[in-house]
Structures are given as C-alpha cells and as structure tokens.
Design goal:
This protein is an all-alpha fold. Helices cover 76% and strands 0% of the residues. α4 packs across α9.
C-alpha cells in the first residue's frame, strides 16, 4: 500500500479526515524508519500504513490514525517522544508513549490468574483506551504477516495473542478484530484443526454456490424466453 492508496481508503471510511495531518505523520514515519525493513523484506513504513488503515476501518479519529502511523518511531528509531511532541502535539505524543510502554511489557506465564492480571495491567497502563486500540491494530497486522517469522517466534506470538489480545479485543467490543485474531491464532497453534475447518467452510461455500446456480438457472431461462 502506498500513500495515495492509503488516503483513498481512509477517505472511504471518513470523508472528514484530516488528510494534511496524515500526510505529515506518514512523511515523519517514513523518514524515521528509512532503511528499516520487516522480515517480509518490505519497508517498515508499510507496517505503519497497515496499522493506520486498520484504525480507519475501526472508524477512529484523525489523531488516532496519525498516532498509528508513528506508533513505532520511539521504540524502533533514534527519534524521541519529544520529537513527536514538537512535530505534532501532546495528544499524539501521549498515545505513542502509551503504545511504547505497552510494548515494553513482556508476558511469560500462561496460568489463568497470570493472564488475567496481565490483561488488567495493560488496561490500567493505558490511560486512553485508544492506546489499546492502536496496540490491537499493531498486533493484528503482525499476525497477518506472522508467516515471515521463524516457527518458534510464530508460536510465541500466537500464544500471547490468543491468551491476552483476543480477550482484550472482545472486552472493547471490536469483534471483527477479535475473530480475525482468533482465526490467525488457530492457524499457527493448531494448523491441522485450522485446515480441517477451512476445508469444511470451502465445501459449504461450494455447495451453497451450486444450490444458488440450480435455483437461478431456470429463472434466467424464463426471463430470456420472455425477452427480458
């Protein structure tokens, strides 16, 4: 996704979005992450665009989308929080600060009590709920591109996602995000079950399409006979 495609997509969700702000945020992020690449080989800024795009799909405001574009700058570059504050404003800087702090928290135990404590800790750390939504968007894109990572890292990230981030998405009511995260977790943690379900869904879809064609065909023939 390039900047032009990103803007078209953003405007399709919100015609009143602040395009000037988003251009500035993209340019800042692109400059800060210059030379950095993901495991996929893509420029790092592609990840920032995808995170911002997910936030737009959630109908977030321009400030949150802009923060999504620069969410990794402090963690992964030499730029500081003060640089973001000076370039933008306190609100965007505070959102990035919250995401950076959440990223520094590491989850090591999958005991039920520990998992619940970790979820509550994340929620309490995020003074602004938009911080959690940016983190969820970040995690969703990371899960979408998980196949580029080494197998052991895939399992660790997928396990953490299933235990911590899926329930968080559910609590915040972003159910489409929750469902996609759960599907991706299943793909990497229980691949055989995932493949079996995928085949069943594919079979059901093909059966539905065949049934539709069976019903539609005589209707089309009747319409054609009447010159319609």
């Amino acid at each position: 996704m390039n900047l032009a495609e990103f803007i078209i997509k953003i405007e399709s969700y919100n015609a009143n979005v602040d395009i000037g702000l988003l251009r500035r945020a993209y340019e800042f992020s692109n400059k800060a992450h210059a030379g950095q690449r993901r495991y996929s080989g893509e420029p790092f800024v592609e990840h920032c665009l995808e995170v911002a795009s997910i936030l737009a799909e959630l109908h977030m405001d321009s400030t949150t989308i802009a923060a999504g574009l620069v969410h990794d700058v402090v963690e992964d570059t030499d730029y500081t929080l003060e640089d973001i504050r000076q370039e933008f404003n306190d609100e965007i800087a505070d959102l990035v600060d919250g995401v950076t702090k959440l990223g520094a928290v590491h989850f090591n135990s999958y005991e039920e009590q520990q998992v619940e404590y970790f979820r509550k800790m994340l929620l309490s750390m995020a003074r602004d709920i938009r911080v959690i939504l940016i983190k969820l968007a970040d995690r969703l894109h990371n899960m979408r591109t998980l196949h580029y990572l080494p197998p052991e890292k895939r399992r660790r990230i997928a396990s953490e996602t299933r235990e911590v981030y899926c329930p968080l998405a559910g609590r915040l009511g972003v159910n489409r995000t929750k469902i996609e995260l759960e599907d991706l977790c299943l793909k990497y943690l229980e691949p055989e079950v995932y493949e079996e379900l995928a085949e069943r869904i594919k079979g059901s879809r093909e059966e539905r399409e065949a049934y539709i064609q069976e019903v539609v065909a005589p209707i089309r023939e009747a319409l054609a006979a009447d010159g319609i």
